[in-house]
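Q: Mind making up any chain with structure tokens?
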Amino acid sequence: QVRLVESGGGSVQTGGSLRLTCAASGGTYSGSCMGWFRQAPGKEREGLAAFDTDGTTRYADSVQGRIYISKGNAKNTLYLEMYSLKPEDTAMYYCAASDNMVACGLLADSGFGVWGQGTQVTVSS
């Protein structure tokens, strides 16, 4: 089955930008969607964005307008571009894959069965 590895995290100042990358190996994911999540210390995991197999994208209201999800030309690379970063964006960021259409639509982490190890994003003021 597909394996996911995130990269691109780091430390930035408020107002900065980052592009996170999720590299998939073991073949292109054939499920319903791939998505990005984040989890800050002491907080629950939060769904950010999803990219459906048919190309449809969706974003969480909390970050819509500041993030953009896309796939690379090779189809085995998923990106998350983030702009105007704030200290509250500090978290571990994960990519994940799901074969559950409902979970994809709701950005529900319980319906995503394959996860990467995460990449840390730290935004300082």
